[in-house]
Amino acid sequence: PVVLGIETSCDETGVGIVADGVLLGDALATSMDEHARFGGVVPEIAARAHLHAVTPMVRHALDRAGIGFGDIDAVAATAGPGLATAVQVGLAAGKAYALALGVPLYGVHHLAGHAAVDTLEHGPLPDRCVALIVSGGHTSLLLLGDLARDPVIHLGDTADDAAGEAFDKVARLLGLPYPGGPAIDRIAQDGNPDAITFPRPMTSPHDPPYQFSFSGLKTAVARWIEKHGDQPVPVADVAASFQEAVADTLTQKAMAACRDHHADTLLLVGGVAANSRVRHLAEQRAANAGVRLRVPSPRLCTDNGAMIAAVGDLLVRANVAPDRLDLSADPSAVLRGALLKDHSV
Ligand code: ATP
Ligand code: MG
Ligand code: FE
């Protein structure tokens, strides 16, 4: 089946076209620059940008795939979680295309997209694996079965800030531009990761093993900067040391989950999986433990349309019943499965 996927949960307007596990074409627009002077995404600006970009991006993706509207067999759109007004633009567009083309609509969970996108580069997922989803709004360790059919099991999530949120907030403390993750990644190349020992949150033996917490780490960075306020901040060293603390914490817990749950595959996905140090440390630790690491190319780690088309493609091929066109968006939906709304409950 040829599936059109639409993603508008945050500040990226992404459209992808996937057929039987193959990415035929995609297109991406971002309103990132319009948010930079506010230091974070402004929902109203993001929603308006989606409204302008969604139709042209669908056109682009079709052109790149070399197909027309008549070739589309199903439409998938992010139905949550995300910024309410932003999600609604893409979902409404998805409904309109589905209705106009007379094809089924799937309202998919954004985080399922982060996981499913890996199949476009590395083939079908194994029957079960541990997944670490690390993004701007989420940090979750999961047990995945068949992504299209099985419920997702949460081993642990973050008690406060997401890993990506911590990158963005620490970048702000360091006077680095939005979005902070890529900026920290870049400047950390020139820093010493051992310069400062920041805490590895929730890693002591009496802590819940798969639970995360990043707001204390952000505060530790803020305190360190305050304490050394009389000298110029060694930005590269602070960035590298902070990044090391995050990478160490994430990979320690992911490897523990693989070991405890006898999983031979670790799926590392979401925007923070684009981080060079997180990727490198995960590779090393997975290799040492004999675990197969699957991580998408950096451009597919951050939000895009291909990830949503990938979920739709899995759902169609698994014969999962589509959604009704009166499906409503849920800005804070917890990840239970590929569809935002599980029809079996
Ligand atoms: P969610 O998926 O939880 O709804 P989101 O869609 O906004 O959140 P993503 O697009 O998956 O998040 O990822 C964006 C986040 O990833 C931002 O916090 C950004 O700073 C972070 N990020 C992107 N690239 C990197 C990088 N190279 N290093 C660290 N963090 C990064
Ligand atoms: Mg974004
Ligand atoms: Fe995302």
TrEMBL record:
Locations listed in the record: Cytoplasm
Top EC category: transferase
Tree of life domain: Bacteria
Annotated binding of substrate, by residue: 133-137, 168, 181, 185, 275
Keyword Iron: yes
Cofactor binding description: Binds 1 Fe(2+) ion per subunit.
EC number(s) on file: 2.3.1.234
Cofactor(s) demanded: Fe(2+)
Keywords: Acyltransferase, Cytoplasm, Iron, Metal-binding, Transferase, tRNA processing
Statement: the UniProt record of this protein carries the keyword Acyltransferase: yes
Reaction(s) catalysed by this chain's protein: L-threonylcarbamoyladenylate + adenosine(37) in tRNA = N(6)-L-threonylcarbamoyladenosine(37) in tRNA + AMP + H(+)
Xref: InterPro entries: ATPase_NBD (IPR043129), Gcp-like_dom (IPR000905), KAE1/TsaD (IPR017861), Peptidase_M22_CS (IPR017860), TsaD (IPR022450)
Annotated Pfam families: TsaD
Domain Gcp-like: 24-309
GO molecular-function terms, A-Z: tRNA N(6)-L-threonylcarbamoyladenine synthase activity
Binding site for Fe cation: 110, 114, 303
Family to which the UniProt record says this protein belongs: Belongs to the KAE1 / TsaD family.
Biological function: Required for the formation of a threonylcarbamoyl group on adenosine at position 37 (t(6)A37) in tRNAs that read codons beginning with adenine. Is involved in the transfer of the threonylcarbamoyl moiety of threonylcarbamoyl-AMP (TC-AMP) to the N6 group of A37, together with TsaE and TsaB. TsaD likely plays a direct catalytic role in this reaction.
Name recorded for this polypeptide: tRNA N6-adenosine threonylcarbamoyltransferase
Protein source organism: Micromonospora antibiotica
Gene that encodes the chain: tsaD
